[in-house]
Amino acid sequence: MSDTTDTKQALIVIDVQNGFCPGGNLAVPDGDTIVPGINALMDDFPLIVLTQDWHPAGHSSFASSHPGRAPYDMVDMPYGPQVLWPDHCVQGTEDAAFHADLAIDRAHVVIRKGWNPAIDSYSAFFENDRATPTGLGGYLAERGVTAVTLVGLATDFCVNYSALDAAKLGLDVTVREDLTRAIDLDGSLNAARDAMRGAGV
Ligand code: VGL
Ligand code: ZN
């Protein structure tokens, strides 16, 4: 990335919500420690996007919606394999709220995702069927954005999927790994790193 004050650059802050911070329902170790660095990085970008994991109660990605299943089990959904999660980021709850110290007033756009009861959505761009768009790709295209920098939670799920989709859309993608934290289920962090590097991120 050459010049971060270029108007073609956007910062995408993925899911910096209470649910993914210590004390949250799907806490990522040290998830809260990246908040000051993200706030500082906002100074360098003319366009700031936040994403918010925003599930209805009883969402199909929750283990509690699958009798006999436990969190972190895998199931086959019509759109492919899906990890089952603890109930998290339910719409309107404290768990779904942004971390209190995140500078949310600086955001131009907030993309809520995962609100379709039948499909999970890790990526800021497409739901987990990899086909249903959130609209962010169109928004960025219309604003003339050609390069995005990603930070937030979690490195190996929502950041990873968002980075891969951004690359697929032809954007120049940077992940500031120092401003992400991982869940790391069964080597998922290493797999995510390999996938992102392989995609030119
Ligand atoms: C996420 C699992 C389920 C994330 C969201 O933000 O990485 N992970 N929902
Ligand atoms: Zn979720």
Question: Which key features would you list for this structure?
Answer:
globular; 5-stranded parallel beta sheet; binds pyrazine-2-carboxylic acid; two-stranded antiparallel sheet; about 200 residues; about 20% strand; binds zinc ion; alpha/beta
Explain the overall architecture:
- The chain is α/β, with parallel strands linked by helices and 201 residues long.
- Helices cover 19% and strands 21% of the residues.
- The protein has four helices and seven strands; from the N terminus they run βαββββαβαβα.
- Strands 5-2-1-6-7 form a five-stranded parallel beta sheet, with helices on both faces. The chain has a two-stranded antiparallel ribbon with strand order 3-4.
- A hairpin with a 2-residue loop joins β3 and β4.
- The chain is globular, with a radius of gyration of 16 Å.
- The N and C termini lie close together (11 Å).
- The site of pyrazine-2-carboxylic acid (VGL) has 9 residues, from α3.
- Zinc ion binds next to loops.
